[in-house]
Amino acid sequence: MPHQPKFPGKLIAFEGGEGGGKSTQIQRLAARLKTLGREVLASREPGGTPIGEQIRSILVHNAAGDEMCPEAEFLLFAASRAQHVREKIAPALARGVTVLCDRYMDSSAVYQGFARNLPADTVNSINRFAVANALPDFTLIMDVPVAVGLARVASRATPLPDRMERQTAAFFQKVRDGYLRLARERPRNTLVLDATLPADTLERQIWDALAPLLAP
Ligand code: TYD
Question: Which residues line ligand 1 (CB under 6 A)?
């Protein structure tokens, strides 16, 4: 593997199953960092760029997506990620910006690898090809029991569940187990949070976990 230069900025990935409250915590952390005068980029996958948003609509919202095979699904997530990294994430990290990403390469490892049973080594190598040297400095996994997460999603204002949300509870259980397994495999830069805790508590836990990394 060639030498991978480190970026001056930090990349924090927020991960987890459905209904874990990632976006609330991203907003809170972004606001806190901005108060301290830090430049922050908050983005999401799939999406984050004009091309990525078009891919997102195929993956998440388009009826044509219902017939998609797992291989095509993964390659579309990876295509969105490759564009996102080159157009937004890597340039921001190069400028020293703190990047907060709502889902990143672990989502593919877990949803397409563990839950859809695509081979882990293939998923990992395509993930690495997509992100190049923009690897997360830290990953926060918002962990919530499947029934709780799905109930939260169902109570949202959106009228119909999207394509991914229509998967079975067994699928989401595999997703949850997959994230917990990833966290066990690399405890040094990954933290699992109990996302049933109040948002204020989670915000504090996230701040405590990231403070050493994000300290000026
Ligand atoms: P989104 O509405 O962003 O879901 P959430 O609010 O739960 O983050 O939809 C993204 C869906 O796509 C979500 O179900 C997770 C899934 N996904 C993958 O399966 N693989 C991936 O690589 C990514 C980024 C997302």
Answer: 18, 45-46, 60, 77, 102-103, 107-108, 111-112, 162, 164
- Phi-psi map region of 88: left, alpha, beta (phi>0 left; psi -120 to 50 alpha): alpha
Give me the mean pLDDT over the 78-91 stretch. Answer: 98
Burial class (CB in 10 A: 0-12, 13-18, 19+), 8: exposed
Paired tokens of 60: 């998440």
> Which of these, 88, 12, 78, lies nearest to 50 by C-alpha position?
88
Q: Which two tokens stand for residue 85?
A: 């990294």
Mean pLDDT computed over 42-70 = 90
Question: What are 146's two structure tokens?
Answer: 């499947």
C-alpha 210 – ligand 1 centre gap (Å)? 24
Rounded to the nearest 5 degrees, what angle is found at the Cα of 184, between the Cα atoms of 178 and 189?
105
| Banded model confidence at residue 67, pLDDT cuts 50, 70, 90 | confident
Instruction: Give dist(CA 109, CA 121) in Å, integer.
Output: 9
Give the pLDDT score at 1. 44
Spatial separation of the C-alpha atoms in residues 153 and 144, rounded to whole Å? 12
Cut 0.70: pTM above it: yes
Q: How far apart are CA 216 and CA 211, in angstroms?
A: 9
Per the rule left: phi > 0, alpha: psi between -120 and 50, beta: everything else, 82 is alpha
pLDDT at 4: 62
